[in-house]
Design a protein that fits this description.
Elements lengths: L7 H51 L4 H12 L1
Helix pairs in contact: 1-2
């Protein structure tokens, strides 16, 4: 019998766009979090470089050690 609607197609027609919206929202959220993560890595590297500069200026490490550690941080 025909009940005036599309039957099961009506549900699929509503569910598929909903799933698509959820997937798009997930992808956008994931991209935003990944971008923030890369910025955090840069901040951590800057912090390490600041600590290295302080240690060198206090005379805790030699110039050779400073240059090698700085090179390692930038890689």
């Amino acid at each position: 019998m025909h009940y005036g609607g599309y039957g099961m197609m009506g549900w699929f027609g509503m569910i598929i766009p909903l799933i698509l919206i959820i997937v798009i929202a997930y992808v956008v959220t994931k991209l935003v979090k990944d971008n923030n993560g890369s910025n955090n890595m840069r901040n951590e590297s800057d912090t390490a470089l600041n600590i290295l500069n302080e240690r060198y200026s206090k005379g805790e490490i030699s110039e050779e050690e400073y240059k090698q550690m700085k090179k390692n941080l930038r890689e």
